[in-house]
Amino acid sequence: MFRSAIRTSLSKPQVASQRFSSGGSRGLKILAILYRGGDAAKQEPRLLGTVENELGLRSWLESQGHEYIVSDDKEGPNSVFQKQIQDADILITTPFHPGYVTPEVFNKAKNLKVCVTAGVGSDHINLNTAIDKKVQVLEVTGSNVTSVAEHVVMNMLLLVRNFVPAHEMIERGDWDVSQVARNAFDLEGKVIGTIGAGRIGHRVLQRVLPFNPKELVYYDYNPLPEEAAKAVGARRIDTVEELVSQCDVVTVNCPLHEGTRGLINADLLKKFKPGAWLVNTARGAICDKFAVADALKSGQLRGYAGDVWDVQPAPKDHPWRAMKNPLGGGNGMVPHYSGTTLDAQQRYAAGTKSILEKYFQGKEQEPANVIVGIGKWATKAYGQR
Ligand code: NAD
Fold first, then answer.
1. Is the dihedral of CA 314, 295, 298, 236 positive or negative?
2. Is the CB–ligand 1 distance for residue 260 below 6 Å?
3. Which of 120, 194, 231, 289 is deepest in the core (most CB within 10 A)?
4. How much is the ipTM here?
């Protein structure tokens, strides 16, 4: 009975103005799909984004009478995700171990009103279907953008300076300076460009400026605010093709959507400067995995680094795990963790709680956190529409 009261209240006109009434603050079913942390999560309670530590929300949610189901089991029709989503009111999931909300999942999820991304990047949800089904998509905008920007700068340095093969040589007990120095350069004096100059892209530009690059450039249909562009001295380039042809280092910092899926494919890779470095911490599916592996193998790319894969967890035979350039280096891949440092986990756990609290109290959400409002796009970051 309570559930039907919720549905009734959500279909009333006041929710269309993005004031979210839960029809009261008790009795909702909240499903969280998080990654399993194992011993690490038992020993380190600040690993909040894990199944074990449950974003720190259980006692708070249960004290208000809500049901809280947490699992990492998300694949296949018999998974906890697929079963529990059928009558969940709210889904929380993270980009690090996403519960993929496809149109089929939406069709099953009869009570679903809100999807919360504990982190940044909501491409695991079919956003067009969310609009059709009037399910809001909210994320903790900004919660891990500094964490990712730092990782991007680290990736640029480790590729350009040929760090990984140098370290592996030391672990093997070898010592051959020329073998690693023959493919090591300075970041200083290079042309560095970002595809996407939002929160992360802008922070990357700010952080690489002190390295004294030859030039900073960006491609984004939403230009940087004039003051921000001036402060970093970044030149805007009109097309992605032009950007990649001018850069020594390219970094991808845009969301995954219809306009960016497979954007970096064999054709575009041919337009890169020969021997360029590519860093992608945005989403794996923005790059064609086989085309990237081929470009690295041929030397067209000197290096590729990042932490995002299509799909996650990445299968054991994913070509990016072991791909190498002709000199046996150029691979800086790690599991998806750039945006889930302990500092970031604290921020996205607190942000998730704040989103839920506003929802329970029928208060307006922070506009920057709304990706999809009720029946409409609320962000301009997921492609030109
Ligand atoms: P943001 O919304 O602040 O900025 C994204 C920018 O990309 C916007 O300016 C938008 O106009 C631009 N953009 C969109 N489509 C584009 C295209 N086709 N070409 C060029 N630019 C385009 O987002 P953000 O906070 O900077 O995050 C960006 C993305 O990074 C997220 O959507 C997510 O996929 C990824 N991310 C990854 C991690 C991680 O842990 N690896 C963590 C956070 C975010």
1. negative
2. yes
3. 194
4. 0.99
